[in-house]
Amino acid sequence: MEGGHGGREGRRERGWEGGGVWRSRLRDKRRGAPGLPVPRRAMPGGMEERYSKAETLALRRKHIGPSCKVFFAKDPLKIVRAQGQYMFDETGEKYLDCINNVAHVGHSHPYVTKAATKQMELLNTNSRFLHDNLVQYAQRLTATLPEKLSVCYFVNSGSEANDLALRLARQYHGHQDVITLENAYHGHVTSLIDISPYKFNQLGKDSKKEFVHVAPSPDIYRGKYREDHPDPASAYAEEVKKIIEETQKNGRKIAAFIAESMQSCGGQVIPPVGYFQKVAEYVHAAGGVFIADEVQVGFGRVGKHFWAFQLQGEDFVPDIVTMGKPIGNGHPMSCVVTTREIAEKFGASGLEYFNTFGGNPVSCAIGLAVLDVIEKEDLQGNAMRVGSYLLELLVEQKKKHPLVGDIRGVGLFVGVDLVKDQQKRTPATAEALHLIYKLKEQKILLSADGPYRNILKFKPPMCFTMEDAKHVVEKIDVLLTEMEEATGMKTGNDVSANIQCKIKANEGSPQPESANESTSHLNGAACRQENGFYPEKHSVPSKTIRT
Amino acid sequence: MEGGHGGREGRRERGWEGGGVWRSRLRDKRRGAPGLPVPRRAMPGGMEERYSKAETLALRRKHIGPSCKVFFAKDPLKIVRAQGQYMFDETGEKYLDCINNVAHVGHSHPYVTKAATKQMELLNTNSRFLHDNLVQYAQRLTATLPEKLSVCYFVNSGSEANDLALRLARQYHGHQDVITLENAYHGHVTSLIDISPYKFNQLGKDSKKEFVHVAPSPDIYRGKYREDHPDPASAYAEEVKKIIEETQKNGRKIAAFIAESMQSCGGQVIPPVGYFQKVAEYVHAAGGVFIADEVQVGFGRVGKHFWAFQLQGEDFVPDIVTMGKPIGNGHPMSCVVTTREIAEKFGASGLEYFNTFGGNPVSCAIGLAVLDVIEKEDLQGNAMRVGSYLLELLVEQKKKHPLVGDIRGVGLFVGVDLVKDQQKRTPATAEALHLIYKLKEQKILLSADGPYRNILKFKPPMCFTMEDAKHVVEKIDVLLTEMEEATGMKTGNDVSANIQCKIKANEGSPQPESANESTSHLNGAACRQENGFYPEKHSVPSKTIRT
Hints:
Subunit structure (chains A, B): Homotetramer.
CATH topology of the largest domain in chain A: Aspartate Aminotransferase, domain 2
Family (chains A, B): Belongs to the class-III pyridoxal-phosphate-dependent aminotransferase family.
Helix content of chain A: 25-40%
Function (chains A, B): Catalyzes the pyridoxal-phosphate-dependent breakdown of phosphoethanolamine, converting it to ammonia, inorganic phosphate and acetaldehyde.
GO cellular component, one term (chains A, B): mitochondrion
Largest interface: A-B, 109 and 110 residues
Shape of chain A: globular
Number of domains of chain A: 3
Largest sheet of chain A: 7 strands, mixed
CATH superfamily of the largest domain in chain A: Type I PLP-dependent aspartate aminotransferase-like (Major domain)
Cofactor (chains A, B): pyridoxal 5'-phosphate
Strand order of the largest sheet of chain A: 6-12-11-10-9-7-8
Radius of gyration of chain A: 24 Å
Oligomer: homodimer
């Protein structure tokens, strides 16, 4: 992997460092008559840039739906190349990527590209024809799972996978109702927005459908039962049991309980061990099934295991597992795996399930290549080693910084919960946003998420190194210190006192923008989506911090 | 393109011609101890086969959902390679492909593969980063559409596209109800099964949701208003108007009318010109939008135009167009295009729309390459020329064969409606199935679809040639003649008489299998899916034809 951090490739000067003069000149030259083809511009690495960044942005505003947001809306990144855990912008500037869990085995992995190319040269067709890639991939994938999870359905996205999981669950006993977790996000199609409080809460108070039941998030830092509770797993599971009983009293029937094995958008929440077992027991007793959504967290990210639900112990086996994002290292593919019994009940309806692209030989070749790389490069081991090191480093930060309320994570899935007040655990939303923008200046890509968007979210490509971990934590340390000093927070080993963070965004403004943003998270009006997101109107709070 | 039809590649002998001895021996050798890796076997063209066909089938039964069906269930095809309009099985046998509309610019097109590889080597990430491919592709795609259709959402499948189209439509004026056509199929996710009579009719009589309204299919051969009606376009549109009025009386509100620009699974139905304009007028007056589903029929297939809805005339512009299958020549991608107004209403909800894989630089590079090939190889022109020739040849067949009731089509989208009785137009379902199986023996892949699965469905890769058209029609001619002779149907120029086709499947059987199949279409219990499908229990009717 390439050494160094945040450096520039080659010797080319960045024109914009001198106030944008060079870029402006270049744009002027390239303007020409409207409608004429824009000449291409050579870029570092032999690439070509078709449009200037301003032109790309203008075309995007014209032709892409305004609901499709960009990172860092005030100054979005134009990324033209990526390799391993690094992304490069149009000027050759290099960014350390801590957020793209889709580029699981590393950006642009040559082994994956080669496998895709080889299969594209031969054949890409639908699964109504027999093909070895399909069955070999199904065999390899099910071999990573407990034995009873043996039947696959290949689809194209996490959303398609979760939708199909719901169809399987509903067909199983003819039940309709679904229990989902607070702050959960399971996908963008209609049926999944219905069961994603992360989304439907933004649509007003009547947006919850009657067949949807929301259980408390098993978050032992911010939730109903916390780390001081003697048995939070049972207590949270009991909440699910209560919902089931209530539902049944109303004559309704539970088809499924669905949860990410660890909540991602919901705030990097790791459920207490034993929770899933108990929930599964209650849900099964009600004739429902347990759907483990591994779209964000599967494929070895947790290090110790290949699947995050395995953190609950060997005595827990979900009825349906859904996969997505990392499965094809960016290639659009995903999978639902279930038991023979559920699959046969689904088949008994007589309705065929056909997915045009799902399970095509190219997607399967890519899926196989990803499994190969995880194995050959011991990326699961790497996730465990680097993840543990990253956690250690972050725990040191917690000791030092009053802004750090909680560190949680496993493998290369880590959350840093920023607080304004250690005891009250007041979410430090503006501070998290500030940090993210400051890290971008340092050429580090990190995001903030969770219901208050105050949780720094690490989910880097699995080739992330010890050096990367050290580098990013060092930068965070410096930034936290700066923020704490600027606002009079006490930095040191004693951070237990109730120190009110005095960072205020846009001081003096009667309606500070970041306060709006913070509120918009609380009431859910802004996007809180996987990978984090920065709304168009964001104003970097740093402007108002006295440094 | 390679010449000849149905020939074998190379000089290798097919072992199974001698009674399967060679294949059996080979399988025996490869069995080995269970669980051990199976040695690969060299195949024609330098490929390798990992498993024997029987092993592939066994693994498929074990690991792939039973709802996922194969073509020709009694003897499925194992396809290992494809090029242009040809597919090759594991023995090197070559098939002429008349059904794969996904391989739009031809199977394994090197230009598309090259574009994918080049981009995969550089970058594949989500659309929250700016990228030229995304905006360039959106620009190129919208340039093929009427001006007001200017805003794109990139997604991964036709199902994701149609689901998003419904979300856009419902957000537009807050209406919920949807008008769909008889026999329509719009996708496999929950929200689309709800609006697909092709699917929900199979789930029992209470399966239609109250917000769904089914309008008669504008089929002038089998529908309510036929070719002898003075104005079928207005008459069918009037039916939609009646539905709207009825709906409004019940206090409900129409969000959308959705229809394929030409019905594919529904039976290759081409709506009469002027129908869409009138429907759009009524739907707009009710505050709804017109969704044109071009997933099966777009991208120049109709020859004269790039989009099938353009067959209705320049005065018709849908509010939303959905795309899919051919868009990436097999790569999982699709798109929704709409107006600025609808896109802004969608954005106004505050809900972000994020699709992890949608619009990634690789998918966009592939989409651009497909557009390039269509243009460079004049595939739209080819569709027009070869399609017209194919229609001419088939019209000759209609004159000659009493089994041919109707020929309809445009460009390389053609349907042959087989009937047992020219006047009653009784669907010749068993005969269509027989023909499909016989054509397979002749190394030609064709399918039958429609509500009675009696309609031969041509939708070949767009590089289909005059020679291919001639070849397949010659084979059909011979087979139709054989079938008519075997059953005493009169073959010749005078086929208007009421000649009852005497082909009976499994004569003497109290419950003939193919009769079951035929019934299962009538009541919808069997799959009638795009690309046609042959259920596991199929028995080739030819066995009972006295030849």
